[in-house]
Amino acid sequence: MGHATANSLIRACNSQISTLTVHADDYLSVTSEISPPIAVTSTYRIPEKLGVNNFGPETHIYTRESAPVRSRVEAVLGAIHDNGHAVTYASGLAATFAFLLYFKPKRIALGVGYHGTRAAIDLYQKRVAPVTLIKIDDPYHEDDLIFLENPVNPTGEVVHLYHYGRRAHAAGATLLVDATAAPPPLQQPFRAGAHFILHSSAKYLSGHSDVMGGVIVSRCCEAAGTLRSQRTLLGSFQGSLESWLLLRSLRTLDIRVRQQSRVAAQLASWLQCAAEGRGYEGIPVNAIAKVQHASLQILPKGYDVCASFPHGFGAVFTVQFTTEAIAKQVPNLFRLTANATSFGGVHSTVEWRYPIDQSTCPRSIRVSVGLEAFDDLKCDWVYALTYALHGEAAAKAKL
User: Fold this and answer.
1) Which long-range contacts does 223-227 make (Cβ < 8 Å, 24+ apart)?
2) Are 237 and 221 in contact (CB under 8 A)?
3) Is 264:315 a contact under the CB 8 Å cutoff?
4) What is the pLDDT of residues 108-166, one digit of tens each?
């Protein structure tokens, strides 16, 4: 079957995420390799009959503008987001700042979430143009930018996206959803009324803690074209090696994210059994104060969260301890779980976020569940918490 025919079949069959991540870029194949090659060139031979601005996913002139593997990864990213139009960047914050330059907002309704987003907006305010920040539940005006994370970093809790989508459309505002913590197949923000979707692709999209990148997905082809043209001038493009690593990772996105989500919900529920200082299945008393995750969240009446997240929630959640001393100590006591920043990789990680984000509780840590088995992670938590409260000898006695 030819590549063009295969691509037509994918669209005709309304293919699922697992198929799209493997085949949505088939039409861009130019060689017989199953895994596409990495183009390390910075420039290309110019076709004899090249029109003015005749650049596209199959025509490459200069790597700052486009590259074969970048076109392929953008084809896959667009396909898995309800056939949107994807533009990749060097990092998630590069994508955020590029969007601010594109949209030129005068007012931004900003939800809670990643502190870097607020820092990018502050930089835009200082160096580019003034912006009025309003609360996410304030009345919206036409041309406002509604900037929401869903789920929220670092708690992993979700917002009622359909509610904000309806409000944005009624006011003529634009809704941008940072879906980094729950990519497809977990949610599809366009269905809730989003106009743009943002990801830090260093997280679940790459999933192996070896890629920096960001992506903006637009409903509108023209908007994506403008973003891509502006990216050429900003120079904030993703390199070919990073694009190749991201494409490799997207092939397994569906199975990775579903598994991480399932185990995260199990682990959050198990840890919640020890909340309010209760001891539970080896977890010492007076260790855990509370656990925050979408699976434990009390949601607004009328919010059909199962319809919004049919395949589970993200694999990030927050554990709050009874003391700050435990929060500082525990990240260094795990044997399987690494004390590291970022999230979304196949290795489970934890981080005491307070030193870099004072909006977080100093008694809490952010947890990112990888692909380890649930029972092994439980043992890891029992060991670390017992060590923190009762010492190494007591922890080893539980092994």
Assistant:
1) 223/85, 223/102, 223/196, 224/84, 224/85, 224/86, 224/87, 225/85, 226/102, 227/87, 227/98, 227/99, 227/102
2) no
3) yes
4) 999 988 999 999 999 999 999 999 999 999 999 999 999 999 999 999 999 999 999 99
CA distances from 149 to 170, 183, 323 (A): 20, 12, 28
d(CA 327, CA 82): 40
245 in the same domain as 317: no
- The C-alpha atoms of residue 327 and residue 366 are separated, in whole angstroms, by 10
Contact 186, 197 (CB under 8 A): no
Residues 93 and 46 in one domain: yes
| Residues 294, 281 within the same domain | yes
For the CA atoms of 105, 106, 112, 117, what is the dihedral angle to 10 degrees?
50
User: At residue 138, what are phi and psi to the nearest 5 degrees?
Assistant: -70, 160
For strands 364-368 and 349-351, give the pairing: antiparallel
Question: What residues are paired with 135 via a beta bridge?
Answer: 110
- Residues 332-344 have pLDDT tens digits of 999 999 999 999 9
Q: Mean pLDDT over residues 243-270, rounded?
A: 98
Residue 353 structural domain: 254-397
Is the preceding omega at residue 185 within 30 degrees of 0, hence cis? yes
> Smallest Cα–Cα separation from 217: which of 243, 251, 190, 254?
190
- 68 and 214 share one domain: yes
**Is the residue at 341 inside a domain?**
yes
302 and 239 inside one domain:
no
- Residue 125 pairs with which residues in a beta bridge? none
Percent pLDDT > 90 in the chain is 83
